[in-house]
Task: inverse folding
């Protein structure tokens, strides 16, 4: 089945694109949700107009969400968990737990569906994508460590902390001069 996308659809395409999809996906999801219409001759004539409108809406949304993406970029979320000697967690760190930690640390509301990861079941450092818009996908660093052990700061977080420390003395030196 060929459909014309009316809105951006994750992992399928952008608004105004004509895509060939499985019949069930188109009939049961895309068409009822208002995300697409059948690619008829009349609909194809409107494709360029739909593409232009979607580009404008996408630009406005990216400007609004840019500040949120900057706040979320490279934040570190430590999770203390019980683990075996081999490093396998007793349980897992889920996307809902990541969403709750983001809200607690930054105050930003994110849906668990926007967190692009499988449940974390081993100790270690993981880079998790948060899909704010089609174009804005900041990375959040999740560190799973044993309960009672100190958290080792990831390299990216150490670099950002060092950059902040370098910026602070320079700005105070400028004020003094």
Result:
């Amino acid at each position: 089945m060929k459909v014309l996308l009316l809105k951006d659809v994750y992992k399928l395409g952008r608004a105004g694109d004509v895509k060939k999809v499985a019949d069930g996906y188109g009939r049961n999801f895309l068409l009822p949700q208002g995300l697409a219409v059948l690619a008829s001759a009349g609909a194809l004539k409107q494709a360029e107009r739909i593409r232009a409108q979607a580009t404008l809406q996408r630009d406005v949304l990216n400007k609004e969400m840019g500040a949120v993406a900057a706040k979320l970029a490279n934040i570190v979320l430590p999770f203390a968990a019980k683990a075996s000697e081999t490093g396998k967690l007793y349980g897992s760190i889920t996307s809902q737990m990541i969403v709750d930690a983001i809200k607690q640390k930054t105050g930003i509301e994110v849906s668990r569906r926007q967190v692009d990861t499988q449940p974390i079941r081993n100790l270690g450092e993981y880079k998790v994508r948060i899909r704010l818009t089609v174009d804005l996908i900041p990375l959040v660093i999740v560190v799973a460590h044993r309960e009672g052990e100190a958290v080792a700061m990831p390299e990216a977080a150490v670099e950002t902390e060092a950059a902040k420390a370098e910026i602070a003395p320079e700005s105070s030196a400028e004020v003094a001069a």
